[in-house]
Amino acid sequence: NAGVMQNPRHLVRRRGQEARLRCSPMKGHSHVYWYRQLPEEGLKFMVYLQKENIIDESGMPKERFSAEFPKEGPSILRIQQVVRGDSAAYFCASSGTGSNTDTQYFGPGTRLTVL
Amino acid sequence: KNEVEQSPQNLTAQEGEFITINCSYSVGISALHWLQQHPGGGIVSLFMLSSGKKKHGRLIATINIQEKHSSLHITASHPRDSAVYICAAPPFGNEKLTFGTGTRLTIIP
User: Fold this and answer.
1) Which of A4, A114, B4, B105 is buried deepest, with most CB atoms within 10 A?
2) How far apart, in whole angstroms, are the C-alpha atoms of residue A62 and residue A60?
3) Could A100 and B93 be called an inter-chain contact, meaning their C-beta atoms sit closer than 8 Å?
């Protein structure tokens, strides 16, 4: 019973390139959350998705960032034209019901470094 | 002001000591999560509780909804408990988590 999977675990990009981060939720989970942890800072909510729907993207930067969770396949967090300030650890979590009393299971994270 | 506050920010203790980490929140919530982030960066969900107390091994979490306060206790602490402990809460009617800044715990052998 695999947990939440994220890949790649480490990603290095040069300024201006695109970064694609993937998250496969736990089996049976249809709710996915993306969080960002900047260096020496706490975790911050970015976006909450269900299959084929964005439920809450209030934590997403207005430009360059997008997320999707298609009917088939993993959830994708996409960062266009990356800048040094995008360097961070990006975690996704999944839950079964999306209820605010449901446990969220975290993936191992993707550490993005922008050169 | 952060909606979820933790104290202390850093805590160093000797092996075997009883550890307490505190979390206060200013928003109305229906549940509170305690997470552990290992030195390698991975995050593990320890507890989700909405009232009273939960225990798992040497870890105990308590919450007082009226006082908007939760504590995480570790009995007979061990160096492998060294990690960052984070409390997080979803405000009422909301699923996204608001996180405390974390408590960095170091247990010295």
Assistant:
1) B4
2) 6
3) yes
